[in-house]
Specification:
82 residues, mainly alpha, Arc Repressor Mutant, subunit A, two-stranded antiparallel ribbon, globular
């Protein structure tokens, strides 16, 4: 990983998992906003400004954290079965 990318990975502390909240799914800062909700909005074409306008209690760093979380979760080892 390039040093520039590594330096940008600093917002994961904003992601929380609580078994009693949103069925234990990853959320933003303990709020009832799931990481998946933010990712779905981005995937549907919403930009950061639109998301922040619709969810005024979110911060720009929360959106970055959701993207970082998705990137980390998608990088998993591939098991080869002979």
């Amino acid at each position: 990983m390039s040093p520039n990318l590594e330096a940008n990975r600093c917002e994961l502390h904003r992601i929380t998992v609580n078994p009693g909240q949103c069925a234990g799914r990853p959320c933003i800062r303990g709020l009832r906003v799931r990481v998946k909700d933010v990712l779905d909005l981005l995937a549907s074409g919403a930009n950061r400004e639109e998301i922040l306008a619709d969810y005024p209690y979110l911060k720009p760093e929360d959106i970055t954290a959701a993207l970082e979380f998705a990137a980390v979760r998608s990088d998993h080892p591939v098991l080869r079965i002979a």
